[in-house]
UniProtKB/TrEMBL annotation:
GO molecular function: ABC-type ferric iron transporter activity; ATP binding; ATP hydrolysis activity
GO cellular component, one term: ATP-binding cassette (ABC) transporter complex
Pfam families from the UniProt entry: ABC_tran, TOBE_2
Region (Disordered): 1-31
Protein name: ABC transporter ATP-binding protein
Domain ABC transporter positions: 38-270
GO biological process: quaternary ammonium group transport
Keywords from the UniProt entry: ATP-binding, Cell membrane, Ion transport, Iron, Iron transport, Membrane, Nucleotide-binding, Transport
CDD domains found in the cross-reference section: ABC_Carb_Solutes_like
Highest taxon listed in the record's lineage: Bacteria
Length: 395
């Protein structure tokens, strides 16, 4: 997972292009860093009286791929539509290249924003060839320039040989690449991708997500992807915003979301794991029945108080010589590994990933050892600390 995250995005500094002029009603904000292509600031979106996006803020620098990830109905598409200009914001503002394009009471029309969109169903023109689909948004260019850009894009997405074919003659993955080339052709400031791989099976989805990421990176495109599939988000995005009930709970790398979730929702939504009762020893240590775990300073957790610690399946190591024994209550074969659900002496359950040559039956006992790199602890639900720090106590 970590390998898919592009560390270079942190230090993007090759910007310096001036924001475009002439967007009606928009004002350049001189205090903004020119590297920032998209700024979503304290945005609320409502359908009538019903708020569906609340207090969302994030920024994307040029060439960065952001992702809105969350369960169905959490407001991802609504937020994407607000960035595209299809929905007005009821509070806050949206800026593209430093130009304000949305604020309460005023929305720059979608066609006046330099925004490209790739939809779930590709939305290709069935009666146009691949080349003409890609060239559709390039009518302002001369014939020769248009052809040059079409050729360039088709080569970029690996479809030069398919220029004269029609969409129905292509596979789903190829059609999606045509849709991507068409959206990228006019060089939009921001590319928005709404569940672009949802009609494909899981394996192809991840592979396409990696391919699309490579294409976007080659053209230095700034993009926002919407998905409910975390593997797709990990494969494609530099930064991921986990949404629930209209709010972004955490904006982070995939690695950060998995290993240092900011709250219980993120801990539960991203990856697998179990919460194990723990006793807070001091500012940097807790004790669990599997042993001590150390980490950064606990927020709102008093020494001596009770807590719960997130244990991921990869925090436990199979170790035949370990004195800590646990019994297998469930087993799932994952190819290279088994995912065992283990019951500890106290009755608490944890998950453990074990190489699949260690094959054990449900009911057997195995030795395990704790090897946690990160400490993630939450106040117990009924504690005063939890009531005071409901929105997260990641350590
Ligand atoms: N045009 C609309 N009018 C009223 N309510 C709407 C409208 N569109 C969406 N909603 C509601 O707003 C909420 C957020 O919907 P949205 O489509 O943004 O969620 P989502 O996270 O993209 O979900 P999904 O992954 O299922 O597409 C839902 O409760 C939905 O029912």
């Amino acid at each position: 997972m970590e390998a898919n995250l592009d560390p270079s995005v942190k230090g993007l500094n090759d910007h310096g292009d001036a924001p475009p002029q002439g967007l009606s009603g928009s004002q350049p904000l001189s205090q903004d860093h020119p590297a920032v292509r998209l700024a979503v600031r304290d945005v609320d979106v409502a359908y009538g009286e019903q708020p569906v996006v609340r207090d969302v803020r994030f920024e994307l620098e040029r060439g960065t791929i952001g992702c809105l990830l969350g369960p169905s109905g959490c407001g991802k598409t609504t937020l994407l539509r607000a960035i595209a200009g299809f929905e007005p914001v009821s509070r806050g503002q949206i800026l593209i290249r430093g130009q304000r394009v949305s604020r309460a009471g005023w929305t720059l029309a979608p066609e006046q924003r330099q925004v490209g969109m790739v939809f779930q169903d590709f939305a290709l023109f069935p009666h146009l060839t691949v080349a003409r689909n890609v060239g559709f948004g390039l009518r302002a260019l001369s014939r020769r320039e248009r052809q040059r850009r079409i050729d360039e894009l088709l080569e970029l997405v690996g479809l030069s040989q398919a220029a004269r074919r029609y969409p129905h003659e292509l596979s789903g993955g190829m059609q999606q690449r045509v849709a991507l080339a068409r959206a990228m052709a006019p060089q939009p400031d921001i590319l928005l991708l709404d569940e672009p791989f949802s009609s494909m099976d899981a394996e192809l989805r991840e592979q396409l997500a990696r391919e699309v990421r490579a294409v976007l990176k080659r053209e230095d495109v700034t993009a926002v992807l919407v998905t409910h599939d975390q593997l797709e988000a990990f494969a494609m995005a530099d930064r991921i915003g986990v949404m629930n009930a209209g709010s972004v709970h955490q904006w982070d790398t995939g690695f950060g979301l998995y290993h240092q979730p900011a709250d219980r929702f993120v801990a539960d939504f991203i990856g697998q794991g179990a919460l194990l009762p723990a006793h807070v020893l001091n500012a940097t240590q807790v004790r669990t029945e599997l042993g001590r775990i150390s980490g950064a300073q606990p927020h709102g957790l008093e020494p001596g108080s009770a807590a719960e610690v997130l244990i991921r399946p990869d925090d436990l190591v199979y170790d035949e010589s370990s004195p800590r024994q646990a019994s297998i209550v469930e087993r799932a074969f994952r190819g290279a590994e088994f995912l065992y659900t283990l019951q500890l002496e106290s009755g608490a359950e944890v998950l453990c990933l074990v190489p699949s040559h260690h094959r054990h039956a449900v009911g057997e006992t195995i030795g395990i050892r704790l090897e946690a790199d990160h400490l993630v602890a939450f106040a117990c639900p009924d504690s005063a600390a939890h009531r005071g720090h409901r929105e997260g106590t990641a350590l």
